Amino acid sequence: MSKDVKSIVRSLHFVYIMTLVLGSLIQFSEESEFVVDKSKTGLTHVPKDLPPQTKVLDVSQNYISELQLSDISFLSRLTVLRLSQNRMQCLDISVFKFNQDLEYLDLSHNRLQKILCHPIPNLKHLDLSFNDFEALPICKEFGNLTQLNFLGLSATKLQKLDLLPIAHLHLNCILLDLERYYVKENETESLQILNTKKLHLVFHPNSFFSVQVNILVKRVGCLQLDNIKLNDDNCQVFTTFLSELTQGPALLNFTLNHVETTWKCLAGVFQFLWPKPIEYLSIYNLTIVKSIDKEDFTYYKTTLKGLKIEHVTNRVFIFSQTALYTVFSEMNIRALTIADTPFIHMLCPQVPSTFKFLNFTQNVFTDSVFQNCKTLARLETLILQKNKLKDLFKIGLMTKDMLSLEILDVSSNSLDYDGQREHCIWAGSIVVLNLSSNILTDSVFRCLPPKVKVLDLHNNGIRSIPKDVARLEALQELNVASNSLARLPGCGTFSGLAILIIDYNSISNPSADFFQSCQKIRSLKAGNNPFQCTCELRDFMQSLGQVSSEVVEAWPDSYKCEYPESYKGTLLKDFHVSQLSCNTALLIVTIGVTGLVLALTVTGLCIYFDLPWYLRMLCQWTQTRRRARNVPLEELQRTLQFHAFISYSEHDSAWVKSELVPCLEKEDIRICLHERNFVPGKSIMENIINCIEKSYKSIFVLSPNFVQSEWCHYELYFAHHNLFHEGSDNLILILLDPIPQNSIPGKYHKLKALMAQRTYLEWPKEKSKHGLFWANIRAAFNIKIRLVTEEDDVET
Ligand SMILES: *[C@@H]1O[C@H](CO)[C@@H](O)[C@H](O)[C@H]1NC(C)=O
């Protein structure tokens, strides 16, 4: 039962996983398959072979001049259609009647003169701008596009109530292109624009501004005008045009894009806008032409909070810098951005300034900017990114009287500090200092604002952080990425450090006590350093292991070994080196212990295999041999006193004495029995050897008892070696009782070997076979051998 449940659960699990996999596959194909991009493909018609599931169709920048019902009616799921930059002249909107999902329709930059109306209920974005309409292409059906939030239009003629049919819609943006609008003699047109948050008007890019239409706006919060070309003559036309537009109390953001003007006219426009209820004025892509002369500017009370001018081209080459900069420096607003301009300077305001935020990114300012400037006491943020600043000391000095300055960004300059000079002076209020992408070196740590909390020094030339510098106790975040630091600094001088970014440096062996020294650290980003994967690193890794994993940023992927070569590219996470190879004391102890164990093992083995016994035997035997070596071979033969030496176990002595000895002696075979022919005063060992040496042959009576007797083994050992020495076949083995092979102890290899190779004589149990047995024994003896008598022996 439970087995069934398990298998059901398992198969459900499988189905679930398969569903996930298939689901993701379908999603994947949905994204790629249902988007069809046929832009810039030279099409003259919408292709017929589109997949019917197509949701997004891009046929922009082609040569399509007409759209028919059959072209797209089968694309029932179409939501986005881009048809801009084609050659459409007329459009019957009813071609979309089967595209009920259509939300986005871009028909801009065609040659449309006429549209035939039809409701498309879900439309959100309808762009008919940059076409050839004479009057605004507004159908009464547009009034039903309740979802519409963007409407792009174009016309050469305007009538006040043209937009009435859509007056009740809540649009986000109306784009009205007036590129081809021309001034009519003796009449002033007007247009009422209702209910849009943003109005975007585009004029002809190359003609001087001449539009004299009265555009009445209500509730427009955001106004953008593109392509304004002004000179001293038509400047008035432009400000007149603006007067109605900028009336509305709702207007907060006013943007001008692509403006070409004289300085005089620009100042005039500023002057005109100053009392208007605008809060933020932005000018992008400004070109100043003709001349720049001093303009009188009255800084009326203004609601303007911020002025932003980005990307300025100056076509005036000889002019008074002061005339240009004074207009800006005296502005009574809070935020001023002048970015990406050829301006080389900005003046210190003459009276205490209202500026809280100044952004001069990407100009050509030098160190002389704002030197000795005491009127920027309210300034909180100063950005001088990407200029031509060189001397950090002077930058410090610049801030001296900026008593509210909190954020200073002087990144991407050529700042350096030669540490030889006097102490740096900084505004004590600075908490964020961005010094990144300069050419600063170690000495920068001797020239920092004392209360800085966030310090960005990335991408400089710092090699080490000096220890003997003033303490930066407030410092919380330090970015020293992309420098040449060789060591991970401790937090000695930055006791409050919480974030350290030190990736892309030259740190090979980060010290293990980093986390001990930096108790408050919350985030460490130290990847992409050339880590040396050795023992030192191991300690660091251990200390890493003790901190929470969120602390180490970009772990483990950007932490890789650089050396040694064999580990190059290995993730630190996967680098393991044993405790042993890193700890010398441990290594010595281990070697010692291993040696001891080895010695003990060898000793144990020696004892087990009875090695000392063999050594003793070898010693005895060599001594005896030495004694015997002095005697010549014939002499030795002549010293034979016995035909046979008999080795046997005490337990078998009954058989030996009752059967073997009588039987042999009957044949005149002289026997040496160690207990009978014992020479007093010699050791048992010597007696045995003596006996063996003086005997022609040795008889061994093998039985389980023999195997058990140690003496018998000695005897066998000597007899065997004697045999070797004499080179003759002098061993006779009699197997009295069968010996099971495995009953011979392992250490008696000799006996084992002999038993295996030798033919032994088996003592038959049957009496009838005894005769043959004895005959065999006798045959083994050469009776003719001359034996010396014991008396002779004594004589010699
Ligand atoms: C410092 O400026 C650089 C750009 O120059 C920017 O990427 C970085 O985020 C800034 N640092 C801080 C702390 O704001």
From TrEMBL:
Q: Which GO terms describe its molecular function?
A: diacyl lipopeptide binding; identical protein binding; protein heterodimerization activity; Toll-like receptor 2 binding; transmembrane signaling receptor activity
The UniProt entry's GO biological process terms, in alphabetical order, are: cellular response to amyloid-beta; cellular response to diacyl bacterial lipopeptide; cellular response to oxidised low-density lipoprotein particle stimulus; detection of diacyl bacterial lipopeptide; inflammatory response; innate immune response; MyD88-dependent toll-like receptor signaling pathway; negative regulation of interleukin-8 production
Give the UniProt subcellular location, in the record's own words: Membrane
Q: Does the keyword Transcription apply?
A: no
For this record, the Gene Ontology CC terms, alphabetical, are: Golgi apparatus; membrane raft; Toll-like receptor 2-Toll-like receptor 6 protein complex
Sequence intervals crossing the membrane: 12-29, 585-609
Q: Which Pfam families match?
A: LRR_8, TIR
Intrachain disulfide bonds: 424-447
Family in the record: Belongs to the Toll-like receptor family.
What is this protein identified as? Toll like receptor 6
Which gene name does the record give? TLR6
